[in-house]
Design a protein that fits this description.
It is a single chain. The protein is mainly α. The protein has helices at about 10-15, 35-65, 75-115, 120-164. Helix 2 (about 35-65) packs antiparallel against helix 3 (about 75-115) and helix 3 (about 75-115) packs antiparallel against helix 4 (about 120-164). InterPro entries: RhoGEF_Guanine_NuclExch_SF. It comes from Poeciliopsis prolifica (blackstripe livebearer). One of its GO terms (biological process) is dendrite development.
Amino acid sequence: MPVVMLRSVGDLLRYIDENHLASDFTAKVEYCQSDWVLLRSSIETFAVTVKEIAQLLQGFGSELSETELPDEANAIEFLLHSHSHRYRQMKDDIRGVLKEGRLLLSNLETVKAAKREAEEEREIQADMETVQRLLAQLRDMEEAFDGFFEKHHLKLQQYLQLLH
């Protein structure tokens, strides 16, 4: 493949259609590298956060399922209180991440609405689908976590009633 040395934008336009160049080269395509980097890093950060939440939920679920039940009522009451407190904290974390994801999705929708080129729109649509998939995973994890905790909490309450 030959290498071509260019001296000006005019030289460049002999090889590339100006409709495919960014406005940095006095062309018609609106493109901002910093915006792209910001969106890309936001999506990647969100994906990592969803993964971290999954690991936290897995760890907490394992801890709950491995909890040995003490023989004293006040110890069971303490477990009920401490597990419920941690559950509420994790629920708050999940809600915060869901809110972050919805905001990211809203920002992507705004960017998509401003795009004129079909290719750019397809790229943004793919990013939106990624965020939607991550949000769906997070909601599914939350639902499974809620069900698991509800059963665990009920088990502790029933055990406490047996001790009374």
